[in-house]
Amino acid sequence: MAELIVTVFDACFSDPRTLNTRLQGGAEEPYYRPAVEVGACHRVEFTRDYPASALHEAAHWCVAGAARRQLPDYGYWYAPDGRSAEQQAEFERVEIKPQALEWIFSQACGLKFRVSADNLDAGLGPSESFKRNIWSQVRHYCSQGVNPRAERFAHALAQATGRPDPLRPELYLLESLS
Questions:
Q1: Please, are residues 125 and 81 in contact by the beta-carbon 8 Å criterion?
Q2: Other CB atoms closer than 10 Å to residue 116's CB: what's the count?
Q3: What's the pTM?
Q4: Cβ atoms of 24 and 53 closer than 8 Å
Q5: Is 93 helix (H, G, I), strand (E, B) or coil?
Q6: How far is residue 51's CA from residue 56's CA, in Å, rounded to a whole number?
Q7: Domain spans of the chain?
Q8: Does the N terminus or the C terminus of the chain have fewer Cβ atoms within 10 A?
Q9: Alpha-carbon radius of gyration of the chain
Q10: What is d(CA 127, CA 142) in angstroms, rounded to the nearest whole number?
Q11: Which residues of 81-102 are buried (b: 16+ CB within 10 A; e: fewer)?
């Protein structure tokens, strides 16, 4: 499935005349590398060959604006596994939109979405409010729309996998979040 996700992403966004961005697996850690050399492409790197990592990193790329897409790893704040409760709350605040898009992309592929607290060492799973906020953001995206990159990718994934339009709110149930 990761290979299909890469193929769809690259078909949507790799044109050097426009967004010039490719999705690439095999990384030990996810990372975004803006092109620094003439003729090079921007790279969205995801962990190993994990489809969920590919979708999550594609979601971060879709959330990032033009200025952030010129910065390594979008210039985002990140504290690694083992965050304090305060750091975890900040992580959850900044992860609502990317995880909401990841859920939409997962739906487009027919994959199960799992909320990620990304803090196993501290033993902190995703809070109920985090789950509710992700669900609310997905519902907002379904009713108000997503940005053009996210919409293009979601529909291209659905078309490639023979799935229905992933921007239908009835597809997303709060109680399905784990």
A1: no
A2: 18
A3: 0.93
A4: no
A5: helix
A6: 9
A7: 2-176
A8: C
A9: 16
A10: 23
A11: eebeeebbeebbeebbbbbbbb
Q: Which amino acid is residue 125, in one-letter code?
A: G
Rounded CA-CA distance 116/95 in Å is: 9
Q: Region 44-65: what's the mean pLDDT?
A: 97
Read off the amino acid at residue 157: L
pLDDT of 90 above 80: no
Strand partners, 27: 47
21-27 sheet: strands from edge to edge: 21-27, 42-47, 31-33
- The two tokens of residue 77 are 């704040």
Partnered with residue 43 across adjacent β-strands are 22, 33
Could you tell me what percent of the chain has a pLDDT over 90? 76
State the pLDDT confidence band at 92, using cuts at 50, 70 and 90.
confident
User: First CA to last CA across the chain, in angstroms?
Assistant: 21
